[in-house]
Amino acid sequence: MASNAAPEQGRNIDLDGAYAAAEERFTAANPQSLAQYQRACESLPGGNTRTGMYYAPYPLAMARGEGAYMWDLDGHRYHDYAGDFSAGLYGHSNPIVHAAVKEALEAGVTFGSASAHEARLAALVCARVPSIERVRFCNSGTEANIMALVTANAVTKRSKIMVFEGAYHGGTLSFPPSGSPINVPFDFIQAPYNDIDGTAALFDQHGDSLSAVLVETMQGAGGCIPGATDFLALLRERASQHGAILIFDEVMTSRLGPTGRQGALGIIPDMTTLGKYVGGGMTAGAFGGRADIMAHYDPREKGHFVHHGTFNNNVLTLAGGAAGLEKVYTPEAATALTAAGETLRARLNELGQKHGLPFQAAGYGSLMNIHFVDGKIRSHKDLAGRNLTALDLFHLEMIAASIYITRRGYIALSLALSDDDHDYFVAEVDKFLSANGSLIAP
Ligand SMILES: Cc1ncc(COP(=O)(O)O)c(C=O)c1O
User: Fold this and answer.
1) Which residues line ligand 1 (CB under 6 A)?
2) What is the C-alpha R_g of the chain?
3) Class assignment of domain 15-92+331-440?
4) In the predicted model, is pLDDT for residue 5 greater than 70?
5) Which atom of ligand 1 is nearest to the CA of 216?
6) Please, what is the Cα angle at 389 between 397 and 88, to 5 degrees?
7) Is the pTM higher than 0.85?
8) Region 96-328: CATH code
9) CA torsion sign, 194 to 200 to 205 to 206?
10) Could you tell me the distance, in angstroms and rounded to a whole number, from the CA of residue 283 to the centre of ligand 1?
11) Where in the chain is the domain with CATH 3.90.1150.10?
12) Which residues contact 286 (CB under 8 A, 6 or more apart)?
């Protein structure tokens, strides 16, 4: 097994040099992942089928996971702080979810028929998320958002959609500052996130032609930037005033408390989209909302909307998801994990202060993002001056310390991580900031 030993610190003269050295150590420690990546490049563009999985010099290939840990092809064990970008809420092979999926698998899959599974997960979702009176399942968060938007267009007979700068609602619904050439060709207007006056002005201008307002209650991929309560309340008020359908994308944030982010905020949208952990770690998406809106999908009604989807009622997803919500991610567990995340985030933020460095963990509860920048982050504009080379270095040095986080600094806690894991993580971050502080200081 190649060594993944802690890096030799403090001998590089600048940040670029430190990063280059970290890449060299990474490459020396991970020959099997390199070989795997080279094989992948022969048939996948850039060896990749999920863009976020790529990072330089090449991504680690994981071989297996158990509880809070993963092992790569070179045999290194990692504390998993990426949590599959929040889909891995239950950790690896949670025994209860695992047993439910196994039981479903053994009972036969791909029925091409209704089963008992969909009603069970649907009831749990409706009980959990205040705005969801009726729900339909699909296969991803992206698909859930597309379905919610086309539903809003069809119901309101309008087509303009308000989204927010820096938002991420899926691979074809992405609004980073650099734009995206592969978004679905809908009629979007982009409003400034957490900016009440700027957004109100756009409502004044476009309100009566809006079919939908689609918003993350916390921008996830955009850097874990919570939506301010007064800002989200404004969206609720103005959407109602103009007859637009307010959609909360809670694909990530529905885990942040027993009733999703919306329940904690007391702001109830017309529709909500879900995904990620909701299928117990299996492919998942769901869109739901007010019964009168969702009634358009009642196939007994004349003129109903047709929503096909071969895998909408995939029994593995439904069974795993239901077992998870019913027996593992109970409302009590959601409260506890959110509190544990807030404690960890506070400890990380204290380290930034202790070292006097532009280092912080933004976010809420079990979802957070490391940023090498000072000051309060209310939108992507506040991230403009962040130090991305420091973040790249942090990523490789955490990997060298057996902590798996994402390249963009995003962290999603799983239920399997313990206080001991968090102590270890905080200690390694402390060491990193001690060793590299002089390179990172502004
Ligand atoms: C807020 C949000 N919406 C939608 C999506 C898309 O979900 P999926 O990757 O399942 O298509 C994501 C994925 O990261 C997300 O974070």
Assistant:
1) 85, 140-142, 145, 168-170, 216, 220-221, 249, 251-252, 275, 285
2) 22
3) alpha beta
4) no
5) 1
6) 55
7) yes
8) 3.40.640.10
9) positive
10) 11
11) 15-92+331-440
12) 125, 135, 136, 137, 138, 144, 273, 274, 275, 278
